[in-house]
UniProtKB/TrEMBL annotation:
Gene source species: Salinicola socius
Record InterPro entries: Peptidyl-Arg-deiminase_porph
GO biological process, one term: putrescine biosynthetic process
Source lineage: Bacteria, Pseudomonadati, Pseudomonadota, Gammaproteobacteria, Oceanospirillales
Protein name in the entry: Agmatine deiminase
Pfam families: PAD_porph
């Protein structure tokens, strides 16, 4: 048997989004987050389709009209109906693997990051879409609690993650590190797990998801967050994380090419003043492009330059994510890539 977890740069059918509802935590920011999501849809559909989960027919009709008005051809988007709790498709969307040459979509248990938030509808969302024949690939349910933002892969059997998340007792309390690694091997085809034990972002609800801290750009390159301000409370932990990254080795024993992403100035919630988790590591790789979160900060340009160097041959597209971090995520957290062969071709007629 051959089993492989797809890297994000695998050719894609579409990007999945889950549109916020007026009764969700986004309610006070609904106009702002919808503007951000619209910008993402316009940007993504220049390169490939989007699958958007909506909560009722009224929202479906409104968004269909809106996207056409924004110049998005109807062949580039599909609006599917399903209940949801929130909009973080990275963590309730399916995780794609290739098993013996065939694509499978794994539906893991989602508990709202260890029971912090309601998640029953999000947890059922992938199965709801499968029942509607949205997917061409089979959907296989898994008993493990696992979020897409918690793992990153080079596509060659190596997985990067954090102990603060995957070994947190609020996820799979009966499984120790060896048992988690066994699950990742058996379910995702992972032969090596690289654990980071340091690094966090204030305001992050995910217990240090790897996609907020360090990401594979190709099998030999990792882009990571570096804090160069000794007065910042993140400095020591992120410096320790940088040391860990420098010590990591590829399977052939060679070091990784490490690309440091800049540190944006601190962002704070305008309502109560708590710090928000702004990070440039939360970029999204799509067919032909990389979408990069920006925060109206002087460091935005430097982050775009780093990622432009990391992804030769791809366009680098900035997306203003100041509204997104108000709910403690960023651009990558809102999305899930669906590799080629995932979706029913009838959704996007040529």
């Amino acid at each position: 048997m051959t089993l492989r977890l797809f890297p994000e740069w695998q050719p894609q059918d579409a990007i999945q989004l889950t549109w916020p509802t007026p009764t969700s935590d986004w309610a006070p920011l609904l106009e702002h987050i919808e503007a951000t999501l619209e910008a993402m849809v316009v940007a993504i559909t220049r390169y490939q389709p989007v699958l958007i989960v909506v909560h009722d027919e009224r929202q479906r009709e409104r968004l269909s009209t809106r996207f056409v008005a924004l110049g998005v051809t109807s062949r580039r988007f599909h609006l599917a109906l399903a209940d949801s709790d929130d909009s973080w498709a990275r963590d309730h969307g399916p995780i794609a693997v290739e098993r013996d040459g065939h694509l499978q979509l794994l539906d893991y248990v989602f508990t709202g990051w260890g029971g912090k938030f309601p998640a029953e509808r999000d947890d059922a969302l992938t199965r709801t879409l499968a029942d509607q024949q949205v997917f061409a690939a089979p959907v296989v349910s898994q008993a493990l609690i696992l979020e897409g933002g918690a793992i990153d892969t080079d596509g060659e059997g190596t997985l990067l993650t954090t102990s603060a998340c995957l070994l947190n007792p609020n996820r799979n309390p009966d499984l120790d590190r060896d048992a988690i690694e066994t699950c990742l091997n058996e379910q995702l085809g992972v032969s090596r797990v690289l654990w980071l034990h340091n690094g966090h972002l204030e305001g992050d609800d995910t217990d240090s998801h790897i996609d907020t801290l360090a990401r594979f750009c190709d099998p030999a390159t990792i882009a990571y967050v570096r804090c160069d301000d000794p007065e910042d409370p993140h400095h020591d932990a992120l410096t320790a994380m940088e040391t860990e990254l420098k010590a990591l080795r590829r399977e052939d024993g060679s070091p990784y090419r490490l690309l440091a992403l800049p540190w944006p100035k601190a962002c704070f919630d305008p309502e109560d003043g708590h710090r928000l988790p702004a990070t440039y590591a939360n970029f999204l790789i799509i067919n032909g492009a990389v979408l990069v979160p920006t925060y109206g900060d002087a460091a935005d340009f430097r982050a775009l330059k780093v990622l432009d160097d990391a992804f030769p041959g791809r366009d680098v597209v900035p997306i203003d994510c100041r509204a997104v971090i108000r709910q403690h995520g960023s651009l990558h957290c809102l999305t899930m890539q669906l590799p080629r062969g995932s979706l029913n071709p009838a959704l996007f007629p040529q």
